Amino acid sequence: MQQKSSFNSIKRQLIDHNIEFFSLFSLDLKGKLHTLTLPIRMFTKTLMERGVGFDASSYGFAKTERSDMIMIPDLDSWFMDPFPQRKTAVFMSKIYLTNSEQNRLSKDVRFVAQKAERSLSASKIGSSIMMAPEYEFFIFKNAEYAVEENGCYYYIEKESEERKNFYHAPSPDDPYIDFKNEAVSILGDIGIKVKYHHHEVAVNQHEIETDFTGLLQSADDAVKIKYVLYNLAKRYDVFVTFMPKPFHGKAGNGWHVHQYLLKDQKNLFFGKDKYARFSKKGLNYISGLLFHSASLSAFANPSTNSYKRLVRGYEAPVAAIFGQSNRNASIRIPTYTQPEYTRLEYRASDASSNPYLALSAMLMAGIDGIRKGIDPEQHNFGPFDSGIPETRALKKKIKMLPENLHDALESLKKDNEYLKQDDVFDDQIISRWIDIKENEIEEMSNIPHPKEFEQYFNF
Question: Is the pTM of this model over 0.90?
């Protein structure tokens, strides 16, 4: 990807800020953050050409016998790390092979996001996609968990539930307003624009919603937001989790992604005097997301815990339907918006996902819907503006979301051609993703569950 910033201009900025160190951030396939920190004297043109070597097998990118790869800073991505005592700059990384051509690694998840944006531009459908995720998370005073041979448990300390409706709870019922204020302030310092924060519907549950940016920037911001919240939690001596369903019987954490397409700075989803003021292309895009919703779930809901959230009764979707203002649908079209921000909200996804892969998969599914002109009514996607249809005849026709990660992965094995358009995803990354997730399922299935003791110990 062409750098917008020159090495000399960035070097000058680092000197002006008295930077002593710089860190390189990378996500592995699963979405875990890795960082490598160097003294500022190592920030040279030679590094920009040759990169920094690392063991790619520890990232899950390669086998140990062929694990040498290099990472190079993305100059356009730098920000000041707000947490180290010594002034440190952070760059997102670009990962390359060490072959003679020094090709970009296809499993580099930022590369996938960059290719997805290029694919949209090459399609002539739109010039860019704008995305704005909502980050739902829990804050706990104490959280403990352990998995051992002779026992496993978890314990999370929650606030009093004297108030049953916590949505937009004020102080003092929301004891973490200062925490969120500081988080939003820090995020602003590193260039992330936040619309607002508030208490969510469940006890101890909170939300931060961001402004619209491009796909790659949204994914980069997801990495930064988690990094800030986890570090701030350490400072406040609390625990933060984006886990989709930490509480049984309570609402879970979604990662709702608002999105729309632009072409020549015009919102392609706006359609005056049409249903929900949504254009035909916008409805085709929605249909693409819903048509591929089962395989898309493998990236958007990639944990076994994800499917404990996708159950009825907690404002979490279970059916591949859409409607305006319908929070039970997989896709909601907000009605309180200006024409230039006409958008859809994909409500099924959660933040256990790798943001680069999940957002890229969403875009590729939507583009496929436009390319093929998929009509929502022909596939019984809706619109449904109130709940999920309960009539027996209609319920049989409605496509449901996968009920578990295994079913999502099986769908991905059968339905992945839309992801491979313009080599955005390739067979290698898809098969490796499936292997990783099937191993997680197998590991989970082999561990005795506390509920099994309750049901069977004295059976």
Answer: yes
